[in-house]
Write a structure and sequence with these properties.
Shape: elongated
Number of domains: 1
Number of strands: 7
Radius of gyration: 22 Å
Order of helices and strands: HEEEEEEE
Structural class: alpha+beta
Oligomer: single chain
Strand order of the largest sheet: 1-2-3-6
Largest sheet: 4 strands, antiparallel
Length: 143
């Protein structure tokens, strides 16, 4: 009898967990992502979002192309997650270094708090980068 009650309780909690997971996933089926955009010579295309095992939103991923004509020593992309009331939830960032012109960067911008729950839309907040400094005339390199 005790075993039957234990199995019934386990079954009940398994059903509750499955229902909770499916209701979480339903919120993410319609997450809006920004259209492709070029800012400051960086072309960004968000291709999708990443979810955790229970449907919680974790990251934005896509591709960016350096169209500045210069090698960048570093670059950071920022994305904002908005809830169903269009309020900012959090900011996701992706960073890279030593990025040559014309090269495609497959980025993943992760939110610092895992499992953002009420995500409705993602917007492209901005880009910042630093140009690679050319060697100074007359300087010698040492190893």
């Amino acid at each position: 009898m005790r075993r039957a009650v234990t199995l019934a309780l386990l079954s009940f909690f398994s059903v509750l967990a499955a229902l909770a997971a499916s209701s979480c996933r339903a919120n993410y089926d319609h997450v809006g992502v920004p259209p492709p955009e070029t800012r400051q010579g960086i072309r960004v295309r968000v291709s999708g979002t990443e979810r955790g095992p229970l449907g919680q939103f974790r990251a934005v991923h896509g591709e960016a192309v350096n169209e500045t004509g210069e090698t960048l020593s570093s670059c950071e992309l920022r994305f904002t997650g908005l809830d169903f009331s269009a309020e900012k939830i959090d900011t996701a960032t992706a960073s890279c270094g030593a990025w040559a012109p014309g090269v495609v960067w497959k980025f993943r911008a992760a939110f610092p708090v895992p499992g953002v729950s009420d995500l409705r839309d993602v917007t492209f907040e901005g880009v910042s980068y630093q140009l690679e400094s050319p060697p100074k005339a007359g300087s010698s390199s040492s190893r």
